[in-house]
């Protein structure tokens, strides 16, 4: 139940982005059943937008699979960061937790992990499953009701996801002792993303920025 409660701040972002994803999937020609399967099996906002767009433009299955694979490579970093808190679990249980890990649940989990050496398996399931079911409902609502929404931007739905991440970052910074260090790391990450994007690295720019910023953060922390 605590995991369910801790997931509540992210639900608005899931609802808005999931709703928008459902609208895009519907306009791409997917049926309600196909939208349901996409949200349940793929379960990734950016990847679902990409899949819907490529399906609408008659992209090949191979191209769609490889594009989504590279876009979602960041999950390697997310899982690597969370895994130390679940070393007390079996590999199978870790895989079950990792299969439902998202950017948002990662942010909530890392906030929860401050000052802790381990995280509760049951708490993580409460967080993950709540997010998973909410995402599915939002996708289906978008697919069904989206036909009456011609301009989602007017409702501010396009800013819901960035706003949610800003909130998660602020919550983490408020609970950190060395705020200056973490702010510097965040600035480094932003600068790296900009330069990586200018170098046309695409979705790899997020991974490059995360690795560089995290490395610089470790170096600065040890030199302190």
From TrEMBL:
It holds the Pfam family AzlC. Keywords: Cell membrane, Membrane, Transmembrane, Transmembrane helix, Transport. It is a multi-pass membrane protein. InterPro entries: Brnchd-chn_aa_trnsp_permease. It is found in: Cell membrane. One of its GO terms (biological process) is L-valine transmembrane transport. One of its GO terms (cellular component) is plasma membrane. The chain crosses the membrane at residues 12-30, 127-149, 155-174, 181-199, 205-223. Belongs to the AzlC family. This is Branched-chain amino acid permease. It comes from Paenibacillus xylanivorans.
């Amino acid at each position: 139940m605590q995991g369910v409660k801790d997931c509540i701040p992210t639900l608005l972002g899931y609802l808005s982005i999931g709703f928008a994803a459902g609208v895009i999937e519907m306009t791409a020609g997917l049926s309600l059943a196909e939208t349901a399967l996409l949200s349940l099996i793929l379960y990734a906002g950016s990847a679902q937008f990409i899949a819907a767009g490529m399906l609408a433009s008659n992209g090949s299955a191979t191209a769609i699979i490889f594009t989504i694979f590279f876009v979602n490579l960041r999950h390697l970093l997310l899982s690597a960061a969370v895994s130390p808190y679940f070393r007390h679990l079996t590999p199978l249980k870790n895989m079950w937790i990792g299969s439902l890990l998202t950017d948002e649940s990662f942010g909530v989990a890392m906030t929860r992990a401050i000052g802790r050496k381990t995280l509760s398996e049951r708490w993580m399931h409460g967080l993950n499953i709540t997010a998973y079911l909410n995402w599915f409902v939002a996708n289906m609502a978008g697919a069904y009701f989206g036909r009456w929404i011609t301009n989602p931007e007017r409702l501010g739905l396009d800013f819901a996801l960035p706003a949610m991440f800003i909130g998660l970052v602020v919550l983490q910074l408020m609970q950190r002792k060395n705020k200056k260090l973490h702010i510097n790391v965040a600035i480094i990450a932003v600068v790296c993303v900009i330069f990586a994007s200018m170098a046309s690295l695409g979705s790899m720019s997020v991974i490059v920025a995360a690795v560089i910023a995290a490395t610089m953060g470790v170096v600065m922390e040890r030199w302190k």
